[in-house]
Backbone:
């Protein structure tokens, strides 16, 4: 619920900013996690279309020292990046880079202020 006269806005949609399908160093398309995930999918241990990465990096794009200047309930830009490791040369690189969003929690009706950084909901495509 809003206490001003602004119209409710549709939440922003996550947006894929970039995708890479081969190693930026050697050009090989073979990747560590993807290779092992393929085996798991063949055994039926993973959904055929599940995107699996060696690491996922995600979080709000913010400056921690400015936390108190961001209003409660605000929508914050967030990043999401799925990475994997080249099977040929060992380079770790980003496969999918997404601009997402996070929400700073709103103040609950009782007025108790949630802890700084509270739960963040990060959108992903
Ligand atoms: Zn490589």
Residues:
């Amino acid at each position: 619920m809003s206490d001003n006269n602004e119209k409710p806005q549709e939440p922003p949609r996550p947006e894929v900013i970039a995708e890479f399908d081969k190693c930026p160093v050697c050009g090989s398309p073979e990747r560590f996690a993807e290779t092992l995930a393929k085996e798991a999918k063949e055994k039926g241990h993973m959904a055929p279309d599940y995107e699996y990465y060696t690491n996922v990096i995600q979080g709000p794009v913010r400056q921690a020292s400015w936390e108190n200047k961001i209003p409660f309930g605000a929508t914050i830009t967030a990043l999401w990046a799925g990475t994997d490791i080249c099977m040929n040369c060992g380079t770790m690189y980003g496969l999918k880079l997404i601009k997402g969003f996070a929400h700073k929690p709103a103040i609950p009706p009782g007025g108790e202020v949630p802890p700084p950084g509270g739960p963040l909901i990060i959108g992903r495509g």
Observations:
- Residues 15-108+119-123 form one domain.
- Residues 23, 25-26, 28, 86, 88-89, 91 surround zinc ion (CB under 6 Å).
- DSSP finds one helix and four strands in the chain.
- The chain has a mean pLDDT of 85.
